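Z., the sequence and structure:
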Amino acid sequence: MKKLNRRTFLTVAGSSTAAAATGAVITSANLLTGQTNGEKNGTLTFRAVAGLPSRALPAYASYVIEGHVNLATNSGIITKTLFAGDPKGMSAIAFPGQSRIMSVTSVEDLGGAYRIRGMVNDRSLLQRGESPTFDIVINPAQRTARTSLAGSELVMALEP
């Protein structure tokens, strides 16, 4: 097996960052759409990002939650991933064992915001003490998402 030297690492990291930036530009136009009218017949598509650890320290990782939720059927898929790098310089490299795919079980309209609940699809990936359920509140008007991470509330920014 070929050894990984600094030049090879920087080449791979640079191309991964370029690919991630290209993907962000392509999808940024349609990341957040709400209801088409007052009825629950729209689709909520979002991407929320927060730097970790908290604001007191420099971020070395980016916690990303992405989802597509059908508001009419209260169903959808949400993914949670922890990427290397702060949100402004996030790489496409995900921390091993930190990604989760979840199915939406309910959506509650809170008058402009949405409380989304669901379950992790593959419970064998959960760490000791980690809950198989999730709860996230998406507020498109304030461009925020609120969820919990390791027992603490986390406020995330919705990307445009």
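The first helix runs from residue 6 to 27. Residues 50 and 64 are 7 Å apart (CA to CA).

Let me know what you think.
H.
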